[in-house]
Amino acid sequence: MQLDLKNWPRMAGWHWLVDQEEKGLRDDMSQLSELGLPFLELVANSDLILTKPGYGSYCEIAALAAYQKVRVITLERPDWPETPFLNAFLSARVPFAEVKITQLKGAHLRDIIEQLEEQEYPPVQVCEDGALQLTEHLFKQL
Questions:
Q1: pLDDT at residue 65 above 70?
Q2: Distance between CA atoms of 80 and 142, rounded to whole angstroms?
């Protein structure tokens, strides 16, 4: 979807990395494709991620949650049944806000970002790899 980047706030010390083709980006914006860096590296080096609910980006962000660096703004996705569960999963790990696309402009977006900057990080949650569960299951079979 095309976002109205021209109406995003200018914020001191902020540089926006955007992933949509846009002619004449502002001097505080860069196109991701022009940076030549892997997507995961960009995510790991960002302070804020604006995304939509999805398994890929949410898992990548959750993997970084222990470093308590990234904050997330996600767009509403009411047509997708997994949305409430994925949002609950991610909001338990990082400062998180769900917004309507109409809120992504000027003062609205600035207010959301400032509110996220004030949020504390949730307690770090251990991500299990399944090894313990498998071991317990096998011991029960013996």
A1: yes
A2: 42
Task: Tell me the residue length of the chain.
Answer: 142
Distance CA 142, CA 138 (A): 7
- Closest C-alpha among 84, 80, 82, 60 to residue 72: 60
For β-strands 96-99 and 48-51, DSSP reports them as unpaired
Element (H, E) at 79: none
CA of 67: how far to CAs of 42, 113, 124, in Å?
Answer: 15, 19, 9
On the CB side of 34, CA atoms within 13 Å amount to: 10
Identify whether the C-beta of residue 75 lies closer than 8 Å to the C-beta of residue 99: yes
Q: What is the pLDDT of residues 121-139, one digit of tens each?
A: 998 877 666 777 888 888 8
> Coil, strand or helix: which one is 99?
strand
- The β-bridge relationship of strands 16-18 and 48-51 is unpaired
Q: Identify the DSSP state of 43.
A: H
Task: Read off the amino acid at residue 137.
Answer: H
Cβ-Cβ contacts under 8 Å for 131 (sequence gap 6 or more): none
